[in-house]
Amino acid sequence: xxxxxxxxxxxxxxxxxxxxxxxxxxxxxxxxxxxxxxxxxxxxxxxxxxxxxxxxxxxxxxxxxxxxxxxxxxxxxxxxxxxxxxxxxxxxxxxxxxxxxxxxxxxxxxxxxxxxxxxxxxxxxxxxxxxxxxxxxxxxxxxxxxxxxxxxxxxxxxxxxxxxxxxxxxxxxxxxxxxxxxxxxxxxxxxxxxxxxxxxxxxxxxxxxxxxxxxxxxxxxxxxxxxxxxxxxxxxxxxxxxxxxxxxxxxxxxxxxxxxxxxxxxxxxxxxxxxxxxxxxxxxxxxxxxxxxxxxxxxxxxxxxxxxxxxxxxxxxxxxxxxxxxx
Length: 327
Ligand code: NCD
Description:
Layout: H1 3-10, H2 25-44, E1 48-50, E2 55-60, H3 66-78, E3 81-85, H4 99-106, E4 112-117, H5 122-129, E5 134-139, H6 145-159, E6 166-170, H7 177-188, E7 192-196, H8 205-208, E8 215-218, H9 221-224, E9 230-233, H10 244-250, H11 258-261, E10 269-271, H12 292-297, H13 299-311, E11 316-318
Parallel strand pairs: 2-3, 2-4, 4-5, 6-7, 6-9, 7-8, 9-10
Antiparallel strand pairs: 1-11
The protein binds N-carbamoyl-L-aspartate (NCD).
Residues 66-67, 138, 144, 147, 177-178, 234-235, 237, 273-274 line the site of N-carbamoyl-L-aspartate (NCD).
């Protein structure tokens, strides 16, 4: 791997992955190249192993299917050992242990930690006490930086690049952590973004500061569809509402249908971090515009690339045929 690329890739080594703030295109490009390589290895049945044992702890204090399984699948494909706490509410935190103490303890057991926690800022708090790299897999309504890697990788594969794309982000923009992490990257990559949400679920100011030229807002999804290349749908985040009546008032506010797709250019691609509730009608799944299941599958190669970049790519080598066999 050439000079600038290995330097850019090295910028991930040993680092915490807590937020997408400050991520640059030159830093992301080698990660996506590595993800493509790993995707190809998987397709060709080429296995990987570590040059010395590596343990990854997945510590999830909130439900997860895709993120957890794709991290664990990625780790297995790299030959990393997984330490999983099946339900973190059964860990010592339920006895009152602080996150910082948990971080200190598990640093002795694992070479890196993937953490999901319901509180904004929890990943940063955990990381400041940890002696190993911490990857934020969602801190409440805060951020979800690794989902953004999956999202950008998927858009890049579909369109060849990001600059100039017109992207609609629709749904719960107030509580959606995937949106908070993704929005700044889209703006940094030269996309024109339309935020589509009812007033109650609109973006917070911090997310939109300083982006007046390339970001606009509307409540009307159908009106913007003709002008979009990418539509990123999100669910209303029920678990973030203190008052269930408030959730009931806004849930179901948008529902993308096949008829809606007729308003959009035929090259429109629809993404969704999933899980879907009812914001995309199931018949959309069979349309060429639907990219969300491929997006979910892309979680594995992108997280393989991230884990390798953080832990040191030279520690992962292709398995020699027959190397796992007893002599
Ligand atoms: C997202 C999350 O957990 O924030 N899911 C995911 O990681 N793919 C989106 C969501 O839950 O709505």
